[in-house]
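Box 4.2: Ligand-aware structure prediction
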Amino acid sequence: MRITALAGGVGGARFLRGLLHHLAGWPDGPHSLTVIGNTGDDITLFGLRVCPDLDTLLYTFGGGIHESQGWGRADETFAVQGELAAYGVGPQWFGLGDRDFGTHIARSQWLGQGMTLSEVTRRLAGRWGLPAGGVTLLPMTDTPVETHVVVDDGDGERAIHFQQWWVQHQAALPAKRFVVAGLNKAVAAPGVLDAIRTADLVVLPPSNPVVSIGIILSVPGVRDALRGTQAPVVGVSPLVGGAPVRGHADACLSAIGVPVTPDGVAGLYADFLDGWLVDKADEAAMAGAQIAVRAIPLLMTDVNAAAEMASEAIELGLSLRA
Ligand code: GDP
Ligand code: CA
């Protein structure tokens, strides 16, 4: 079975690690998983290109992730950031550990030598043992793009980088809308549209529907590929009991005028979504839905819990294919 997933960082990575765990124990393999990662979160810091969502996916699949934090490296130290602070060099609000710096230096060096982000990501993935397990990680586009947030805190509208809004301001500045700088020139990275079109199953993990999945959907051709694919498209709600499990998806949804409900999130995918997994606590909120809905526990407390969710997503998808 060929599975294709669209993913942001922590929510996507944890779910997909569970999916890989589940597939490893499945009969009639080998299976493959192609992950299309969000690059709207990317930012240049200290002259280095940082791709937070791609790195979270790589570290999680490769066993290098800081488990409780969900992002960054395990066993991390912060000597470089401390030295930068001593020189008065910022920003200091974006945490970059020494091991993590190694990734960004390698990436920036290769990009500087003229490699595409796809090629660079393949190289970084090699270090983490991919494509073992049949996993391929693709950036959504090789074109540098950045999600910006138009905010208005009383002095009129201005746009700031997504990371500044999310990390520095903790999404507390009132957001008006999200814009993806560079999108007008962006094309889907090699393999992205084919992976959607030729999949046996397309999965939307419980990633942020606006600033993770929504940004991938804005890449030209992606939405059309999802509408046109023969594969069932199954999504997993990022809300449990009507609220995000972590992060500020509620602020993102409110900014674009979408209710913070599983129904509201599913509505963002209405033109291509076939099946929708919601938490037991949200079952009533989906009564009367037009798509196939299954209500199960959706808390990824550990790898096994995520694997169980993935198994339900696959079953729902296969039932829709049949
Ligand atoms: P980010 O890029 O690191 O913010 O990660 P993603 O965009 O991939 O995922 C963020 C989303 O994951 C948030 O909206 C969370 O609500 C969701 N999420 C995190 N943990 C869980 C969980 O255990 N269960 C569910 N259903 N959603 C989760
Ligand atoms: Ca992200």
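In the box above, the bound molecule is guanosine-5'-diphosphate. The chain has a mean pLDDT of 96.
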